[in-house]
Amino acid sequence: MVTATKILVREPHFGHEHGAGGPWNARLPELSHTLNGFQLALPYLEPYFIDAVRGAREHVKDPQLLEDLRAFCAQEAEHARQHRQYCRLLRKRYPRLAELETGIQQSLVHSRRNHSLPWRLAYTAGYEAITAQFSRWLFANAEDWFRDADPHFASMITWHAAEEIEHRHVAFDVLHAVDPSHALRVRGLVAALKKTYADLNPAVSYMLEVDGLLGRWDSRARRVQLRLSSVRNLLPSLLRYLAPRYHPSQDPEPAAFAVWQRDNAPAGA
After folding, report:
1. Where is 5: in which H helix or E strand?
2. CA-wise closest residue to 38 among 114, 137, 120
């Protein structure tokens, strides 16, 4: 368990209404829509995560983890708010995204009603592992990804990625306080990976279709290249998660993240 929190609660403003509202980097449309599609679930996933960790408070005895839990919930609530605004902008250009969002929302409502708290925590910890590793990848590639990109989107997704790294241990430690089963933790990650892909793929294909790119050989090639790159960059880190003695604090923090964190500390932090 980490011993000191670096979880800082921020309330940024990104000017979504002035952003691109679609392919935020014309040079990288497949990456643009992969990140756009990933966000569809966030207005519904973040409250799900908050509900799960708050439901476990009585099992948490460590004062530092309780403080981190409160900061985690505050960060996730702000993430949900910001991505809800961004998804509203996306739906103006891609109206069928609303149907996909409804399906995601309904699946999470079903989980809250029918799944146990340990399972919901395992799913939360698994999803947080995915986002933390993706965030490390983002910081390693930010210069390329956000060159010539919509600055409103770049600022938002970088902020979210930084806070995912800051609170990467919280859901993991709360799950361990409730149920330290290694098998449960592994099942939660596998379920989160499967659901992420199931939600992401149709959204990306639809947005590429609207933009006239679906089926084009160059777009298909870039999409395959992006998938291969994601496997190379994310799989080794996610495999570490399967180790019985793994803890999120073992993952090194990118140098670019430390610079961003220093430059974006809230007043008085």
Report:
1. none
2. 137
